[in-house]
Amino acid sequence: MGARCSKFSFCWWHSHLKPSLDSSDLENGGKNEKNAFPTFTEFNLDELKMATNGFSPENIVSEHGEKAPNVVYKGLLENGRWVAVKRFNRSAWPDSRQFLDEARAVGNLRSERLANLIGCCCEGEEKLLVAEFMPNETLAKHLFHWENQPMKWAMRLRVAFYLAQALDYCSSKGRALYHDLNAYRILFDQDGNPRLSCFGLMKNSRDGKSYSTNLAFTPPEYLKTGRVTPESVVYSFGTMLLDLLSGKHIPPSHALDLIRGKNFLMLMDSSMEGHFSNDDGTELVRLATRCLQYEARERPNAKSLVTSLMSLQKETEVPSHVLLGIPHGTETPPQPLLLTPMGEACLRKDLTALHEILEKTGYKDDEGIANELSFQMWTNQMQETLNSKKHGDAAFRAKDFITAIDCYTQFIDGGTMVSPTIYARRCLCYLMSDMPQKALGDAMQAQVVFPEWPTAFYLQAAGLFILEGIEDDAQEALKEATKLEAKRSKN
């Protein structure tokens, strides 16, 4: 039987390898449903690799500049939950304990006004955060880079109100500091509701810089001390109000000059003309001005922001997705990859577990392979072939992998019988002996003999994971193995 020409079959070979929380914490959103939010989890690196398809560039949601301190990926956990995975560069968070303490503290927060932190990972030099995934882009996208229609006035007021609620909730839980609050930190969930990213609640540990935006937008006291205070966060909230008023990112000093000169109507987004009352515009300008006071002590706190914005809300009965002009909900995510024990062992590169599985399975899968046996069965050649198999199996059980390789090679070279299991066992022996390229060759030969055999693809995945640098191919082989095994279990 011929092999299918896939990127992890012989075509690939020749081109690549030439020699927990209380319900009382579900605040500011109103749904006290049990299990409304996932509990905080410490993930292992392999789980997050699997979720993001090996940190594939295709899964990148956002990254910052050339000296990127982190990259955010979209991922799909095994339970079918979409997540945002923030991966820090290796120089960030040199203190692992500080990273874990910060993550756990932020992970204790749960609000429908936040894109909540649901987990983290700290393995070696790798530091990652895992948050709820928000599928409907950022405030910057909807406010500054809209395509079909500008953001409606009622939606702008709702964004300001929900953001104030988020900051008030965080303050009430002892997390009043938020780093670099800007229009990219506001995300929209599947219902179109704005949420504040939890990532800004984590302290920046390496360089102490909490503002990556232009200095024209940073609080005056930060320029002096380099430290963020709760009042600094309110100042940044004021810059967000200017964004919502103008539909542009206007430096506060310029905006305040216009306001003092009674020219504040020049601040207003021209596309909003006729869509709001002068009283509403004046009130929002007044609130922004209070937030942008030079003296930090003269700015309002988060709770008073909530009170001020509550009375300005419009069209409160209209769902957010309607105001935002987006379809409701998201498409059903694809069925998550539910790994079998063999699949998990491949992903972990746990060769001992693979050895146990192959030994336990024995040769039962060979029953589906037709072997052409003639009079040679009774010849000395046949007896020698069977003896080499017998000795190979004894060495395999005893974990004498070099001897097993020799014996299985004699069996294969004898040419009397063809056994995919022999190829699979020799493949594992090669992996155990640090010969992954030869192992991959045997796994692919097992696929040639038995094209629909999950084990052949599992072992290809194991070899590709061990070879490193070719994660995409390893993931493809693992997916194929999982799919074939699921198909087999249904029959």
From TrEMBL:
Any idea where the Protein kinase domain is?
58-324
> In what way does this protein cross or attach to the membrane?
Lipid-anchor
Q: Which domain of life is it from?
A: Eukaryota
Q: Which UniProt keywords apply?
A: ATP-binding, Brassinosteroid signaling pathway, Cell membrane, Kinase, Lipoprotein, Membrane, Myristate, Nucleotide-binding, Serine/threonine-protein kinase, Transferase
Identify the Pfam families for this entry: PK_Tyr_Ser-Thr, TPR_BSK1_C
Q: Which PROSITE patterns match?
A: PROTEIN_KINASE_DOM
Q: Which family does it belong to?
A: Belongs to the protein kinase superfamily. Ser/Thr protein kinase family.
**UniProt xrefs under PANTHER family:** SERINE/THREONINE-PROTEIN KINASE BSK5, SERINE_THREONINE-PROTEIN KINASE BSK5
What protein does this entry describe? Answer: non-specific serine/threonine protein kinase
Organism for this UniProt entry: Anisodus tanguticus
Q: Lineage, please?
A: Eukaryota, Viridiplantae, Streptophyta, Embryophyta, Tracheophyta
